[in-house]
Write a structure and sequence with these properties.
four-stranded mixed sheet, globular
């Protein structure tokens, strides 16, 4: 009995230590959320982000709150480029749109975001020689967290042409979502219900065959591996969901269940 009491006391102490450890963070977030959302940021979201324009007013308020939290907690650094508020907002939108349905989602595997003026420096990529095209973005492992590298021009272009099937921000954050379960393998178990894994795998292999034989409009870069397939499909899904629904109804229906959004 004494041993059980000791364990209960230790558990209670552990809970108190954990609570007081996270309390400053909770207070900081609450203070941040009470600050008004800058009108210039609102104008940028309304002007450049069609996803935001399509939200209901309550969801817009939630989105603004999450933008404020993301930008206050994630370091975004420019590499020979000034990181303007517009770039910061587009980066935040790239991160938050795919996970907007998941309350409390944090990119715990993200360390820092580097934005390049032009293509991502291929010297940063160990496998750059294996690519025939320049790199527009990349997720690089760094200890327990990752560096996310983005091209400024590609980030901006993704939101200027929201029907192009390509958005480097969605692509790279899709890799982080995929990796949230510990492995970048094209099966995002952190958000994908267990009962959808088999149907997803079956559809993935079927679509890969279509791409291989030129019978699909999904980016052929998805043939690189399963992780890249998931990333390019996410780009298409969030960039031009109407066209994606028309051309790939089965994939659309499954991803709608995964991301829990009726786009």
């Amino acid at each position: 009995m004494t041993g059980i009491i000791s364990l209960l006391v230790l558990a209670a102490l552990g809970g108190l230590i954990f609570f007081f450890a996270i309390l400053p963070g909770i207070r900081r977030r609450n203070k941040l959320l009470k600050k008004p959302f800058p009108q210039e940021w609102e104008n940028t979201l309304q002007g450049k982000v069609s996803f935001y324009r399509g939200l209901t007013e309550p969801d817009k308020a939630k989105f603004r709150e999450r933008v404020k939290v993301f930008l206050s907690e994630v370091r975004i650094t420019g590499v020979e480029v000034e990181v303007t508020d517009t770039l910061r907002l587009l980066t935040a939108c790239s991160a938050l749109i795919p996970v907007f349905a998941f309350e409390g989602w944090d990119y715990i595997n993200l360390g820092e975001i580097l934005i390049y003026n032009g293509p991502v420096d291929t010297r940063q990529a160990a496998d750059a020689e294996n690519h025939n095209s320049i790199l527009l973005g990349q997720v690089r492992p760094f200890q327990s967290k990752h560096l996310l590298l983005l091209s400024r021009q590609s980030l901006e272009a993704g939101f200027e042409r929201m029907n192009s099937k390509e958005n480097v921000g969605f692509h790279e954050f899709a890799h982080l979502i995929d990796e949230a379960d510990g492995t970048i393998d094209g099966i995002p178990r952190a958000i994908m219900p267990e009962e959808l894994i088999a149907p997803w795998t079956e559809l993935m292999y079927k679509e890969l065959e279509h791409i291989k034989h030129g019978h699909s409009d999904i980016n052929p870069y998805g043939l690189t591996n399963h992780a890249e397939f998931f990333a390019v499909v996410c780009e298409y899904f969030f960039e031009d969901h109407d066209k994606f629904k028309t051309h790939h109804p089965e994939l659309y229906a499954l991803l709608t269940k995964v991301f829990a959004k009726k786009l």
